[in-house]
Design brief:
36% of the residues lie in helices and 6% in strands. With 190 residues, it is mainly alpha-helical. The longest helix has 17 residues. The model has no long low-confidence stretch (mean pLDDT 90).
């Protein structure tokens, strides 16, 4: 990202209070502070912030104890679609696993089958129905079914402290996207 933004910094830690060390006062007194370049913020936002304007069925599967991308990201994704009034296009499932990208093959096959059926028939599946149908795929793959259809992640803000920009969903409005798309060279895509 540093090279794609031409060395411009899209992040700021001005006013951020760090906590959890053995001496938070010393940590905050000694941490280097830096400000974001507004054009770098705009370009990164244009390429990565969600508008929530999803027009096709989306089925997610996320491990509750994912060590790489914490499960509360799913709450932010749902909030983005809700903010754009598109939550009808989303089904989220959660598993009692602690992996990031190596979940059960039985669950992957089951999820792909559920998404395929939704696309073909228009009938939106439920997390409970997806969990219930997994055993048929486990007979073939034998990797287990660990769905937790009653799980719902806490809000993103319960995991991430808000910064001055706040935590709003969707992160980018349709107006921002349209306005920024008219700027030649906006974004970080190659």
């Amino acid at each position: 990202m540093h090279s794609r933004l031409g060395g411009r910094n899209p992040f700021s830690n001005q006013g951020v209070r760090y906590s959890g060390s053995h001496d938070d006062r010393a940590l905050n007194a000694g941490v280097e502070r830096f400000s974001a370049d507004p054009s770098a913020v705009r370009d990164l936002s244009y390429d990565s912030d969600l508008t929530g304007r999803v027009t096709i069925p989306v089925l997610t599967m996320h491990a509750i104890d994912d060590p790489t991308a914490f499960v509360e990201h799913e709450a932010a994704y749902r909030a983005s679609l809700q903010g754009a009034h598109r939550e009808r296009n989303l089904v989220q499932t959660f598993t009692r696993e602690s992996e990031h990208s190596e979940l059960s093959n039985s669950e992957y096959a089951n999820s792909m089958s559920a998404l395929d059926a939704w696309v073909r028939t228009g009938k939106k599946p439920t997390p409970h129905a997806i969990a219930a149908s997994c055993s048929a795929f486990d007979h073939r793959y034998g990797t287990g079914c660990f769905h937790d259809p009653g799980f719902s992640p806490h809000s993103y803000a319960s995991r991430v402290n808000s910064r001055s920009s706040g935590l709003r969903w969707p992160a980018m409005t349709a107006t921002q996207e349209k306005s920024w798309s008219r700027i030649d060279g906006v974004g970080i895509a190659p």
